[in-house]
Amino acid sequence: MSSSLAVAFAIAALFVAVLALVFAIQALRAQSGAVRSARLPEAPSPEPEQPQQPGAKPGTVRSELKKLGKDIEVTRGELRETLQHLAVVRYDAFGDTGGKLSWSMALLDDNGDGVVLTSINSRTDARTYAKEVRAFTSEAKLSPEEDEAIETLRKEAGPTVGS
Q: Residue 20, CB half-sphere, CA atoms under 13 Å: how many?
């Protein structure tokens, strides 16, 4: 097998591995969200009758808007926990290679939780690493490129997130 064909297969395998990892993380987050929502009642328990404001009767526009407002807040809370922020840093890991084929990619949610993936490519092989990130930091030692990817997302998050 030619070396260019081997490189193509290695890149394809790496891409599939990264996709599998992203789907696995999303599935775990969805499962933990399902556990949290299972603890909460599915439907709000009937509240004792309280004097309602005029026009706030069930089925009215005002009451439906209130329900929608609550639904939007729940959805916003769930959205904060999705991996939606992405930063990629490309670089040459070794002096004898070119083309910036090595890369580090941070996938984080609004709280700075997620994963940083790194692929180090040389002329003969490629190695892939995944490190967990919590609040924009990792217990694992990070490379300068991994730090750069995470720092890019921390700056994008602004002062209210991750502080």
A: 6
